[in-house]
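User: These chains co-purify. Model them together.
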Amino acid sequence: MTQTTDPVANASTDAVLRVAGLTKRFGATLALDRAELELRPGTVHALVGGNGCGKSTTIKVLAGVHRADAGRIEVADQGWEAGHYDAKAGRAAGLRFVHQDLGLFPELSIAENFALDAGYPTGPGRRVRWGALQRRVAQLLAAYEIDADPRTPVAALRPAQRTLVAICRALQDSEADRQLVLVLDEPTATLPQHESAVLLDAVRRRADLGQTVLMVSHRMPEVLAVCDDFTVFRDGRTVAALVGRRPTERELVGHMTGTAPADAVDGGTTPAVPAHDADVVLAVHGLHGGPLRGVDLEVRRGEVVGVAGLVGSGRSSLLRTVFGEHAPGAGTVTVRGSGGAVAAVGGVRARMDAGVALVPEDRAGEAAFPELTIRDNLSAPVLRRYRRLRGMDRRRERADAAALVARYGVRTPSADAPLASLSGGNQQKVVLARWLQRDPALLLLDEPTQGVDVMSRADIYRTVREAAAGGCAVLVASSDLLELSTLCDRVLVLQDGRVAAEATGAQLTPDSLTALTQSSAGAPAGEPLGAPR
Amino acid sequence: MSLTDTPPLSSAAAGSAAPEERAAAPAPGRGAHGGVKGLFERHALLLLLVAVAVFFSVLPASADVFPTQENLSVLLGDRATVALLALSVILPLVCGYFDFSLGAIAATSSVLTAGLMSFHDLPLGLAMTAGIGVGVLVGAVNGLLVTRFGLNAFVTTLGMATLLGGLVQWYTGGQTILLGLDPRLAEFGSTTLLGIPQVVYVVAVVAALLWYLLAQTPFGRSLYAIGSNPRSAALVGIRVQRSVWSTFVLAGGIAGLVGVLSLARAGSATADPGTGLLFPALAAAFLGATAVRPGFFNVVGTLIGVLFVSVSVSGLTLAGADTWASPVFNGAALLVAVGLSSYLGRSRGVRTV
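Assistant: Joint model of the two components:
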């Protein structure tokens, strides 16, 4: 690879990281469109925006995961055309990343986690000098005010401490004469509130000591509390760069969603809200457990209700608790099934008997039987239907499978092909068909079109709407706000484990939903939205 | 190429089957069960068995003895215990778990059944029940450790096998239990019905029941689902832990029966840890997973696997091969079988390593 690394003098400003004109295209999608970003040394800089605005792509370009199509990246006193930038160059120039999953080895000690990153100090005969390692790590921990022994396994630390250890590890080769830039990708997404506060405090103190930090976060109150500068992305473009000025939450969310959310463009296609007297199929009251802190909601026959919320807001937990996989810590979940069966307690099987179905988020890990045939995958929850004294009724099972494959448009030469031979979209159709053949009273969908191609996505939406039209109650959790606004009759916004807001009718646009999920108050600037329940 | 012209080579032919299927693999219709390739894949082991049998019937060195009714009777009778043990092995394997203790369970059952009659003058029925019962009990403990406590099945059952081997040594004092056994047992083991040893009928009955259980009941089908993906299985309402536990219990019970049968066949119980029985059974189970329903452990394939290994070893012995030929053949067959079944790619493999 020819490296045209030409360190150029940095004429205009003293920016420690500068991204200019960054453009990245994925197929037909323009993920980044001449995006700009500039970090002043010694500041905490927030990079914010709605889902799909391009901030993750930017981080991935900086980390060298993706290569940008055009643009320029400058770190400290070096610069590259974006096409020539890679992970090695960024690291050498002083970029350090701490991703959401931290990349720590939980069973190993803090000291070993440091050593695995930077190498073990060795003596004669490649012997590990444990004493030296521990002394050095202890010094670093002290400098970062992490109150822990280097020999402690990472798993024994509190969540905020773990993140701090990851940060400390990323910056361990920092020296007085060398500025490193720390990139934190959603550092607080999975932390509870008090842990976030501890972490953000520590980050702020590092910045006051001169550390430059770029922080990507969805939580507005947090970035507002800790950051100096703000860059807002929308549709792959930089729409606002607020330097040295702390905006209001309203202003920030306004930039993220655009000033005036489009009027109900597709109001005509938005399904009508079903009559209120329709049966309530699912009633959840005061549900606690995991991240949930008192969820109340109802879903009626024939209704498609969406659940929006940031990572860690409890979307998946809600669905899984309703399916009976987790027992609720407190509160009630009542399901009124098709035959009037009421299930208030019980595990997965009791819920299934009451007519509840779950399509989980992780298809490969939790829904698929990859090497079994499509027929086996379809019949897994209804095996008892085919039981005869002389054995399984394979003829009927085959006929049913063929009918389901045809009805739900699964593209396969035969229902006897292994599931793994299908594309992601077609696998998802099989998983949906698996449950729809039971005529569920309540269908729970967790990220129903993740990893699904555009064509299959349309098929899946149609299938879900048809099921609802047939009387099924549907609860959809998704991080794709466009999906929720297309598919749902109304969308509930989960925040801090509660339903914080509800959007219906003309508010069902990705922009309004972005505003609702990002805003802590529930009602964003400019647009009067549905009152929080 | 016509299938009947398969060259009559024993182990070499097993090796040459791989390139045949490698050619088939990238084709778009992979996994579709129709077509000549799929048909060949499912019946390759059976064809190989026939080929090996024909080969030893024709080979001058073994042609006099091999194709006789007496030899067939001895062969079937001697391998009945291995066949039954192989059937017990596939039960946990279908769910993705290894049970390494089944050979030791058979040995324990055999020694206990003999000991209760010989040392304690217990009646035959009670002694047999105790032998099978100890298998069920050990299986239940294994299953509990693996499911409830989440211990690694391979290590757990290996530990159990070692422990049982030690107990067998202690119980017998290292001696063979020969005297004081109910003669009816040895009589059952040594007589034939319609020219076939009676023990073979026991194997046939158990095999038929297991086939029905695995292929023809919702329970059996859900075991394959667990083997494919336990998380998915739980989320379609399958009681994963309970199902896995019951495969260990059932396998333990069958292994207990193997102990009784081997006592009937041998007329005595030796202080043997039982591994000699387990390895050919494992080889047969893995060979069986390449046949009938390729990529999945199944009853009919396992029986073909046992016959294939038995016929080959018997033929080699009769043809004058040394005693080392038998373990070498068993080992090679196991390696080829494991290689083939993981190549076939539909088996998730066993969740032990």
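Chain B has one domain: 3-23+35-344.
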